[in-house]
Design a protein that fits this description.
Blueprint (H helix, E strand, L loop, with lengths): L2 H27 L18 H8 L1 H12 L2 E6 L2 E6 L2 H9 L5 E2 L8 H4 L9 H14 L2 H19 L5 E5 H18 L1 H6 L1 H13 L3 H5 L6 H27 L6 H7 L10 H32 L1 H18 L5 H5 L2 H13 L6 E5 L3 E4 L5 E4 L4 E4 L1 H4 L23 H4 L18 H18 E5 L6 E2 L6 E2 L4 E6 L7
Parallel strand pairs: 2-8
Antiparallel strand pairs: 1-2, 3-5, 4-12, 5-8, 6-7, 9-12, 10-11
Helix pairs in contact: 2-3, 7-8, 7-20, 8-14, 10-12, 12-14, 13-14, 14-15, 14-17, 14-20, 15-17
The structure holds protoporphyrin IX containing FE.
């Protein structure tokens, strides 16, 4: 945070503290309701809750879950955040109708980045239609052609590596995934001709989303100004591309084309602004999440060599059946690799906290059978990063053990729905999950078939300071080119 941000943040905090004080007085004077409210996290008044949260949400949740159980409320300035932890209560979080628990209020901070007229800037009925456009753009028939492009991008990227060398795996996978996302989502024009310009603009958009942006998304700080300039320029670039595609009558195999061809129920076509906004939303949803997961997958397979070897063996079996070919259906046969990715993502979900806003009073029942009334106006939160490691669901939850998902164990299924929530679930479950797995599998099957690796830097840690929690520092690996064949 720079000096200007600090000052504005402090002023905001002062304002919020005044509000809180007024609320405290009002709550003391107000008559007691008969509601069975969840227990409250004890913290010093006014900004105590905020400080505990900022010191680390996950340690706070761990401590309070042990003391208070699966439902508890944290007072943060003038807000009440009620946590739902564990599959028994998070089912309510994921399945509740929009009229009861909605996303729009809590994810408003995305609006200046995604732009007007899309996703959290529109009513639920329009948003649902826009999510239908995502669903259609990510159908199996579309995924098949995206996979072909992913494979070409991976082959091309790694062909530039030498016979041996040392690289930062995190940096390399981030770059490859930007290229792939450009090709499959943003389209050929950006990937082939405008890649550097558009990447730089997306970089500014990305940097414009900071922790402070969640509270004050329009604060006039330099990062937000750069974000707004970049957003305007991206809109110009896509307007030109969309017009040129429409006038040429040419159709491409990418998400941009799907959004151009999408129609609302009333027959209206998408506007240039909406198409641009939806593409930005797709990139924000899928790019960092996928590159972080591909890096953790590599880091864990290299640390626990038995899983690397098992994944190599699987590649050999698949090559025995299909030769060197890689396509959607062949990637779908890679169960060992799938479990290695899924387990890395269980331990390190990039979205550590999911939020909703409560529009109505409702009741939840905890694992122990306690009933709590959740009032209208609370923010409701659940945490994949914490819930994915609950010991009553996962044996040795902090251990990397991809076989926990194998037939016969399937710990996530045995414990019931919403036990594994890296992709959320229910009403707003991730629409890009199959795309993400295919992309990470396309990269890792190429690497497993063409290289040997050794992790030469210490095993990485989480970077808790990022909005999308990623890998801290470099992940240095030594590689040596080798061609995997069915007999070696
Ligand atoms: C490893 C990669 C990914 C992870 C961990 C991930 C995680 C998530 C999570 C946790 C949610 C639910 C948010 C909530 O309930 O508040 C979500 C929603 C969503 N994701 Fe993903 N995601 C990934 C990749 C992708 C990709 C590649 C795309 C698209 C290309 C995508 C598109 C979406 C969309 C459109 C939603 C909103 C669904 C709705 O609200 O109905 N995601 N994702």
């Amino acid at each position: 945070m720079d000096l200007a941000e600090h000052k504005l943040f402090a002023a905001g905090m002062l304002f919020a503290a005044t509000l809180v004080l007024a609320k405290l007085v009002a709550s003391v004077l107000a008559p007691r309701s008969g509601k069975r409210l969840p227990p409250t996290v004890s913290a010093p008044p006014v900004i105590g809750g905020l400080l505990r949260f900022m010191r680390g949400p996950i340690p706070m949740i761990r401590e309070e879950y042990a003391k208070l159980g699966g439902v508890f409320t944290l007072n943060i300035v003038n807000r009440k955040i009620t946590f739902f932890i564990g599959s028994e209560v998070s089912g309510h979080f994921f399945k509740a109708p929009e009229a009861q628990l909605s996303q729009q209020e809590v994810y408003q901070f995305n609006v200046p980045t995604f732009g007007p007229g899309v996703v959290f800037d529109v009513d639920y009925s329009v948003r649902q239609e826009q999510f239908r456009f995502f669903t259609e753009a990510l159908r199996v028939t579309k995924l098949r052609s995206y996979v072909d492009q992913m494979v070409v991008e991976a082959e091309d990227y790694f062909s530039k590596w030498g016979d041996s060398g040392t690289v930062d795996l995190k940096y390399e996978l981030e770059h490859l995934i930007i290229l792939t996302a450009s090709r499959c989502l943003l389209g050929r024009e950006v990937r082939d001709n405008l890649f550097d310009d558009v990447s730089a603009l997306f970089h500014d958009l990305d940097n414009g989303m900071r922790p402070i942006s969640v509270i004050f998304p329009y604060l006039p700080i330099p990062a937000h100004r750069r974000r707004d300039r970049a957003r305007a320029r991206i809109a110009e670039i896509f307007s030109t591309i969309i017009r040129s595609r429409k006038s040429s009558g040419k159709s491409e195999d990418d998400m941009l084309q799907c959004f151009i061809d999408s129609k609302y129920k009333n027959g209206r076509s998408t506007t240039e602004g909406e198409i641009t906004g939806l593409l930005i939303a797709a990139l924000f949803a899928g790019q960092h999440t996928s590159s972080i997961t591909s890096t953790w997958t590599g880091a864990y397979m290299l640390r626990h060599k038995q899983y690397f070897s098992a994944a190599v063996e699987e590649q050999k079996e698949i090559m025995a059946r299909h030769g060197n070919k890689l396509d959607h259906d062949i990637l779908s046969e890679m169960d060992v690799l799938y479990r290695c990715i899924k387990e890395a993502l269980r331990l390190h979900p990039p979205l550590i906290m999911l939020l909703r806003y409560s529009h109505d009073d409702f009741t939840v029942t905890t694992k122990e059978g306690k009933e709590y009334d959740i009032p209208k106006g609370h923010i409701v939160a659940t945490s994949p990063a914490f819930a994915n490691r609950l010991p009553h669901i996962y044996k040795n939850p902090d251990t990397y053990d991809p076989d926990r998902f194998a037939a016969g164990r399937e710990e996530d299924k045995a414990a019931g729905a919403f036990s594994y929530i890296s992709f959320g679930g229910g009403r707003h479950g991730c629409l890009g999950e199959p795309f993400a797995y295919l992309q990470i599998k396309a990269i890792w099957s190429h690497l497993l078939r063409n290289f040997e690796f050794e992790l030469v830097s210490p095993f990485p840690q989480n970077n808790w300071n990022a909005m999308v929690v990623g890998v801290k520092g470099e992940v240095m690996v030594r590689y040596k080119r080798r061609k995997l064949s069915v007999d070696n």
